[in-house]
Amino acid sequence: MNLFGAAVAVVGAVGPGSAATLKLSTGSVGNADFTRTPQYRVVAATVWVQALSSDELAHVGDLSQQGALRVVYVAGDVGGMDRAAGRGGDIVNFDGADWLVVRQMEQWGTAWSKLMVRRQPQVT
């Protein structure tokens, strides 16, 4: 049973999702100057974006998170930093900005993920 699909049908009637691009980290490559350049697999997606609730803000309050934070719902298994699993550095691009996934707040198998994202500074 596809619960995410059923929820999207109901939520989509209230507010459609936003077009987004997922940049899923595939690791990094070493450069001649000993720096590292991140590599990504780019996937088109639809996301549902919300502000963090007061409970979610209280939960991350001790983490010294700075900058604009949002909650994003997306189909698929997208995650935050997990060094043991070799994961981290995933980025969601919507509304013309990159948002770094700082935490996977909920996950339902590979069907959907609830993510906390932080807006990244624009590179000029």
Short précis:
The protein is α+β, with helices and mostly antiparallel strands and 124 residues long. It has 2 helices and 6 strands.
Detailed description of the structure:
The mean pLDDT is 80. The protein has helices spanning 3-14, 54-60; strands at 18-30, 36-50, 69-75, 91-94, 97-108, 112-119. It has a 6-stranded antiparallel beta barrel. It has a domain at 1-8 and 47-124. It has 2 helices and 6 strands. It is globular. By secondary structure, it is of the alpha+beta class.
What descriptors fit this protein?
124 residues, alpha+beta, six-stranded antiparallel beta barrel
Question: What is the ordering of alpha helices and beta strands?
Answer: HEEHEEEE
Kindly name the structural category: alpha+beta
Average of pLDDT = 80
Low-confidence stretches: none
Tally of contiguous helical segments: 2
Oligomeric state, counting identical vs distinct chains: single chain
The largest sheet has its strands arranged as 1-2-3-6-5-4
How much of the sequence is in beta strands? over 45%
Output the radius of gyration: 15 Å
Shape: globular
Q: How much helicity do the residues have?
A: 10-25%
Number of strands: 6
Largest sheet: 6 strands, antiparallel, barrel
Distance between the ends: 45 Å
In terms of topology, how is this protein built?
Elements: H1 3-14, E1 18-30, E2 36-50, H2 54-60, E3 69-75, E4 91-94, E5 97-108, E6 112-119
Antiparallel strand pairs: 1-2, 1-4, 2-3, 3-6, 4-5, 5-6
